[in-house]
Amino acid sequence: MEEKNIKINDVDAEVKQNPQNDKNKNGAQTADKKADNDSNAKAKADNADNKQEKEGADSKKADNADVKDDTAKQLEDAKKQIAELKDKYIRTVAEFDNFRRRTNKEKAELILNGGEKAVVALLPVVDDFERALADENKEDAEAIKKGFELIHKKILKAFEGLGVKRIDTADKDFDTDVMEAIAMVPGVADDKKGKVVDCVQAGYTMNDKVIRHAKVAVGQ
User: Fold this and answer.
1) Ranges of H-type helices in the chain
2) 176 vs 157: CA distance, rounded Å
3) CA 66 to chain centroid
4) Which residues pair with 198 in a beta bridge?
5) pLDDT in tens, 85-118
6) CB of 178 closer than 8 Å to CB of 145
7) Residue 86 class from Cβ within 10 Å (0-12 exposed, 13-18 middle, 19+ buried)?
């Protein structure tokens, strides 16, 4: 009995003498637990990063799919627009070609028959001349004179219908735009100087364009 008490006392003494051992053991357990916690935290962080990367990849994949769809739609729209423009271009070229041919034909006809209007306007005058020549009273000078006066008036009226007008020169100032001086008449009164004294040949305009200058004598 005494021996057993001694052994127990020895153990208690050893425990009392080595309290550092328990402290070290508890510290090691705490370090291991901390390491485990750090490992778990790192694993969780890694899982979170992997999850985020996966979500980013899925989002990028979805964006790429949307971009691909948009590009395909834009390409299809562009093809349709090109087809429409091509059809419009072909139609425009065909219409212009028809217009060019029609215009060239009209121009050729205008050049060939440009004097038709003038001829038609003068045909009644020719008829009057023929009737005057066939008149039995053609030896009557007064009748012939009246006939020529009527024909002359009819010619001027036909000219007016064609836009042709006679240039008025009587007592007008000399105008180089519509007149041509072929003679200078000296010794005229002061109020006649620089004015038309006589018209040797009548001048005409057609639609306000001079087609023949009036030949006149001008006072000096």
Assistant:
1) 2-17, 19-112, 116-134, 141-161
2) 27
3) 37
4) 217
5) 999 999 999 999 999 999 998 888 877 767 888 8
6) no
7) exposed
